Amino acid sequence: MVPVRSDAFDESDALRRNSLHDRAYSRPRGKNAPLKTMKTPATAPILRIVPVKSLKHPDVRAITSREPSPSPEITETVKAILADIKSKGHAAALAYARKHDGLKGPMAVSQADIKAKAAKLDPKVKKAIRGAIANVRRFHSLQQEKSWSFKGRDGETLGQIIRPLRRVGVYVPGGAGTYPSTLIMNAVPAQVAGVREIAVVTPAPGGIHPSIAFALQELGIKEAYRIGGAQAVAMLAYGTAKVERVDKIVGPGNVFATLAKKEVFGTVDIDMIAGPSEILVLADDSADPDWVAADLLSQAEHGSGYEAAICITTSAKAARWIADCVAQQVEASPKRAILEKSLRNFGRIYLVPDWNLGCALADAIAPEHLEIITRNPDALSARIRNAGAIFLGPYSSEPVGDYFAGPNHVLPTNGSARFFSPLGTYDFYKRTSLIRYSPQAMKKHGPLIAALADEEGFIHHAQAVRKRL
Amino acid sequence: MVPVRSDAFDESDALRRNSLHDRAYSRPRGKNAPLKTMKTPATAPILRIVPVKSLKHPDVRAITSREPSPSPEITETVKAILADIKSKGHAAALAYARKHDGLKGPMAVSQADIKAKAAKLDPKVKKAIRGAIANVRRFHSLQQEKSWSFKGRDGETLGQIIRPLRRVGVYVPGGAGTYPSTLIMNAVPAQVAGVREIAVVTPAPGGIHPSIAFALQELGIKEAYRIGGAQAVAMLAYGTAKVERVDKIVGPGNVFATLAKKEVFGTVDIDMIAGPSEILVLADDSADPDWVAADLLSQAEHGSGYEAAICITTSAKAARWIADCVAQQVEASPKRAILEKSLRNFGRIYLVPDWNLGCALADAIAPEHLEIITRNPDALSARIRNAGAIFLGPYSSEPVGDYFAGPNHVLPTNGSARFFSPLGTYDFYKRTSLIRYSPQAMKKHGPLIAALADEEGFIHHAQAVRKRL
């Protein structure tokens, strides 16, 4: 979600003209603002159309391993910050916040400040935040779990105690933008799991933004600190005299925060490591190309240059229409340079002979967001194994899930949907197994247990059992 | 579970005589082989009795941060092996197995070999393995989950698809010992989740052991390779021409395998990083000290010197009895040197004034295994938040859970029970969110969604929504 480095990938190949794009063509009657018949643009298309006939196409690997490694210097800086705050405590955390985040004034956000800032927010955005919180809460409440146990036939009791984590840190990125949705998506599942203490960290040198203040207020979170980067992560992981350590840190950050999270993993738990965003749209010629193009751009606008915006289609016509709509929307966008960079790097339209290959290709890419805008989206959805979230049909535009619908927007990137899951309520529980053996169960099974321990050479395991027989 | 390095901790303090141990005392009538009245041993006690009056006692930190860091040389070796196998494939994996594991003959284990070896196993161990598999399967089947979805009031459908991982690698340590219980505890939850493909790796230069062969047969696992260390992890994570890559690698290994798992995390998923084993026993004077001592020794025998074996008691008498039983059992053990090393490093009896502090201390240590052998174990259990597994009452000796009862023996170590959970069926699922927005839902909520996107500065997110209004 946040770039790691943006200078390591240069795909000159993207400048090659794609032959499929060579002909003039017309656009079908879509719902919205139909394009006029266009001539082939004089320059190379921003979004290349690439015919793919096999899963071995080299692009698949390029897409799923596109995140660059951070430089050794950054890694060293992060380690130094962590070590410093671990040994020197709060004063060091504060000093780094002043130095790197530009913090002025106190680090802890006061209740008065939250109240005053929240009051300033546009009522429409307030309503949107309230709606989003309600929806996210509802969805995640369906992921709640309860402790259980059962009694076995020899009188033994076995079970699992499922408890919320006690204290969680939420990192809300700051700097250029303000991201109340990040706060909502990370804090609500924790609250639904029953986490009592949530500490929010966010780099906000000029004071927290009204939207963050309002979200904090609505969520009932009273503990927030204006600090970001590795210093925020160190403060949460190790604790200081003024801020108690947490059990888990969630939320995306800049490269420093991300590396710091990796380093403290084990000292605390962390959520997944978020990479640059991805969208993959399966579209046929029933899809409005203008909508598909807009959805592709919604991921390309993040600004790292590493976002992947991919369309897979079986229709050469649809491919051309979509490429054209992308060109038009990019042309008209105030974010043109940002969009072009991402799209030329990792934007593609893959033209496949059939949906067998199309679905297999989507599965190999294992996208964070998968939209299916075809005549029968369910049929294709049933064939997809690997995706963070699936958006079915023309009205399920990806931002619906980013902001509002209820499912989490923290999703696996970089092909990791093969094995990772969206952030959920389940991420804020911890489990403890429960075993109560009865004298009868020990008498009956003890000899077998001791035999297994002996087989593994653990004679004192065996002895602990035999003493009870 | 497997040592990382065993030369980094030397606690000369353990040699100091503990004053509480100074008096002669007698042992109560326990169920088993009562000790005779003993005089104070002439040498320092193996298990020190340490009066603890506050949570700030320095031992707490020593126990929860006792795992040493691997040397930079080992880290470099591991990185080189991973890079080599990633680029050169199967031939490199095979070469490392020959070099480091001492492999002779083929790496893949044949069905004929499994069958022949399995037939050789002692019938009693066969019965024990069958029983363990049945119990572990039953317990983990209670952790099964199913996909779900619901329809919202504006016609939108939201849900979560829960699917098993497709292919999982299980690392079974080899070398000195043979660990069928590791295979069972790691493979059964995967099978219960529905994982179809399981590839087992284990360093077994002289051929796989009958107990492993029999467990493979009982579990219906046909894919096994004689390879260990970083080379096994690399082969599973990257795949080779002969062995397909997996989605997740589980199971404890030596320092090379452990470091390799950390390195490939993200390319595949991994289970937790297993540290040296821990047992903490809460005991009062109703506990048979001979049993408590045996349970403490069952963890100390693992052999790394980093195992923690701790007893917390409110009874000075119990403390002395237990220390004495430990001394006697160590004296009589063929593993005396191994036991002494662990116990002098990280073996302790903490004498606390009351169970308030006792439970708080247990919580701060957050042990892998917690036994409660007191008059009212449930009352104490209810006050513990952090533990991998809790064993209640005198008959729930820790090996019961290691081998047979049903709950998993892969448990969080080194204080990470604060936030990590036992390995479970839940670790072999992955989830995909499902969003199908209706035209009506888009019409009603679209303006709010676009407002939130605008608030965050994501104009193309907003545009993707507004095009549909």
Oligomer designation: homodimer
- Determine Rg of chain A (CA atoms, Å): 26 Å
Instruction: Indicate how many domains the architecture of chain A comprises.
Output: 3
Main sheet attributes: strand count, strand direction, barrel closure of chain A: 6 strands, parallel
For the largest beta sheet of chain A, what order do the strands appear in spatially? 1-11-10-9-12-13
Structural class of chain A: alpha/beta
User: What's the mean pLDDT score of chain A?
Assistant: 89
Helix fraction bin of chain A: 40-55%
> CATH H level of the largest domain in chain A: which superfamily?
Nitrogenase molybdenum iron protein domain
CATH architecture call of the largest domain in chain A: 3-Layer(aba) Sandwich
The CATH class of the largest domain in chain A, by name, is Alpha Beta
Strand content of chain A: 5-15%
Please state the overall shape of chain A, judged from the principal axes of the Cα atoms: globular
Question: What is the third-level CATH name, the topology of the largest domain in chain A?
Answer: Rossmann fold
| Total beta strand runs of chain A | 14
Write structural notes for this entry.
The structure is a homodimer of 469-residue chains. Chain A has 469 residues and is α/β, with parallel strands linked by helices. In chain A, the strands form 3 sheets. The first copy, chain A, has a 6-stranded parallel β-sheet with strand order 1-11-10-9-12-13, sandwiched between helices. Chain A has 3 domains: 12-67 and 276-405, Rossmann fold, CATH 3.40.50; 72-270, Nitrogenase molybdenum iron protein domain (Rossmann fold), CATH 3.40.50.1980; 437-466, no CATH class. In chain A, helix 2 (72-88) packs across helix 8 and helix 8 (229-238) runs parallel beside helix 9 (255-264). The first copy, chain A, has 17 helices and 14 strands. Chain A is globular. Chain A has helices at 58-64, 72-88, 90-101, 111-119, 123-141, 180-193, 210-219, 229-238, 255-264, 289-300, 316-332, 336-346, 355-365, 377-381, 398-403, 439-455, 459-466; strands at residues 48-51, 148-151, 157-164, 167-171, 197-201, 223-225, 248-250, 269-270, 278-283, 308-313, 347-351, 369-373, 389-392, 429-436. Chains A and B meet through helix 5, strand 3, helix 10, strand 13 and helix 15 of A and helix 5, strand 3, helix 10, strand 13 and helix 15 of B.
